[in-house]
Write a structure and sequence with these properties.
Layout (H helix, E strand, L loop, with lengths): L1 E3 L25 E4 L3 E6 L5 E8 L3 E6 L10 E3 L10 E8 L4 E7 L4 E6 L4 E10 L8 E6 L7 H4 L6 E4 L6 H11 L1 E4 L9 H5 L5
Parallel strand pairs: 3-11, 9-12
Antiparallel strand pairs: 1-4, 2-3, 4-8, 5-6, 5-7, 7-10, 8-9, 11-13
């Protein structure tokens, strides 16, 4: 399980990081893994702040292209271990382990936990992406869902109230669909783990 709720980086193959998510800044909960760097960022909600995101598993993955099939190839280890690089990838993203947990608080009070059964977020790319040797640098950001995908009002947040959304909650299916269907992959040109205005304007890779 990979969970991170405070700033910092660890010198390991799975490297977490945290950033802020207000007024257009990156989300309050993000992780990045591997070399090359894959940052997973959470789109902001409305009237609330994400404090952490936890994945049962956080494994970066790219699927190697086959000549006639998009996303039809074999998984490629993004860390370059036992991989003959470069290769062309037709899908990229992260294996989630099947469960993603978001925690946060409302701007006007209250706290929440979203426990979502989310499939692997390995997105087909609109154009094949050359995968690179270890001694070069490239980074991408996987942005979960769209802005305002969950709101303090829909959760019923209020001072002193904690709301848990799990498989029995009426919002569960909508929130799972928001993550699985509305997530996008952006090129992180400067490798800072943040989608800049120019990087967003360039459009998603998927």
């Amino acid at each position: 399980m990979l969970c991170h709720t405070h700033p910092g980086r660890l010198a390991a193959s799975l490297l977490p990081a945290t950033t802020l998510a207000l007024l257009g800044l990156p989300a309050a909960a993000s992780v990045y893994v591997g070399n090359p760097k894959l940052t997973v960022d959470v789109s902001p909600g409305q009237g609330l702040v994400f404090d952490s995101v936890t994945f049962d598993t956080a494994v970066p993955r790219a699927d190697q292209c086959q000549p006639a099939a998009l996303n039809g190839g074999q998984p490629v280890d993004l860390l370059g271990v036992d991989t003959d690089l470069p290769v062309d990838a037709c899908a990229m993203g992260m294996e989630t382990g099947g469960l993603v947990t978001f925690e946060g608080h409302g701007l006007a009070g209250g706290t929440f936990t979203l426990v979502l059964g989310v499939s692997d977020l390995v997105l087909p790319l609109s154009t094949p992406e050359p995968m690179w040797p270890d001694n070069t640098s490239k980074a991408v950001v996987l942005e979960l869902a769209d802005a305002d995908w969950v709101t303090a009002t829909s959760l019923g947040l209020a001072p002193g109230v904690h709301v848990t959304v799990d498989a029995q909650h009426p919002l569960y299916d909508d929130l799972v669909n928001a993550v699985e269907q509305d997530s996008d992959l952006f090129r992180d040109v400067d490798g800072d783990g943040v989608i800049s205005g120019a990087e967003r304007a360039a459009g998603p890779l998927n």
